[in-house]
Amino acid sequence: MSAQQRGQGRPSVAGWVAAVAAGLAFVLGASPAVAVPPPPPNPSDSELQESKDSAHQRANQVGKLTNQLAEAEGRLTSLQNEVALKLELANKARVDAEEAANAAAQARRDARQASEDAATAGRAVDVARKETDKFVAGSYQQGSKMGSLSAYVTSASPEDVLLRAQLLEAVSDEQLDALEELRTAQIKKANADSAARKALEVAEAKQRETEQADRAARDAYQSAVDARASQAARAKELEADRDSVQRMLYQAQRKVEGLEDQRERYQDWLEAKREEQAQQAQQAAAAAQAPAPAPSSGSPAPASPTIETVISRAMSQLGVPYAWGGGNTEGPTYGVRDYGVADSYGDYNKIGFDCSGLMIYAFAPLTTLPHYSGYQYESGTKVPLSQMQRGDMLFWGNGGIHHVALYLGNGQMIEAPQSGMFVRVTPVRYSDILPYAVRLIG
To answer: Is 56 a residue of the active site?
Structure first.
């Protein structure tokens, strides 16, 4: 109710009924069926006062419950988008987990190689040490004062310097090479040991990252599913209450007779006429503001052969079931368990596509896309929606990407929508759509 209406006093019961009916039509997605007919007779106010109060009370209840239901359904829509986002984030976690698992496996292979290198280096140290120990043992047998080789290698006193000079005079080239090989082998073994330890640390860190990402994705998704279930139950309760009071309102209206009934109908007509005009104005404003592709007639003109190949591959999957986590470059695959909504639809037992899986299959001749719509959004050139062309990818989720589809032209797109549905062609939805399309071709 506007400020001007409040200043004119309490509205009539019929005005309340008309406003409530218009609100219900808006909430439930109904559209006007026919134009408003000519006005009925209009009795005086004094003849209607007694019957107003009862119907007014019921209409007021309906209005309040309708507003509450609209708020609940709006919240439910937001939660549905949040669940879709969490599903895609779970997809992201799954892709990241695969990458982490691959990295962990590589790190373990590196660790095994490093251990083998360390063992090889250790054997080289043993060989070099035996060769040098032979020389040292020989020097003792000849009465030399040089002592053990380890003392030569580690000491730095003036006496040791003299012994080093004596050693160099007595040692052959082969023996000097053995000494150098011993030092080199010791260094290589130390480096190999260090590399093995580092590789094992990397493998363990990657494994921990994988487990943490998986737990976080599952927790976030379950929270979203629980919130949506709770809100859906609340919306159902409000809808039942509203319907009950609505029936009571209709009973009160049927009791109005004679002039009272005529006046109520006249007020209904007035309000319906205002609502009709308001809806027409809103629709015109929405049409003027909504982005739309350039108008064309008939089927979209063929694009490049590459684009048409992509479109053809996507269109070949029309009617294939939605399966969360399903689809690859070869075609539809079994879905993946999500321990929530997708599982309740049995997606893991279905062969099909999810939204990003359909894009992977469509673009397979051109490139390999990741199985996550958020990464696919970064895979090509971004263009404003006003410039989108046949073969571009469209994305939804201003609070976090949760859906992707392929634009066909003429305001149409092909998508794998959600659990329980099938790959389909449908008009582009502009609610929550991102302002840029992604172009991989051209």
So the answer is: no
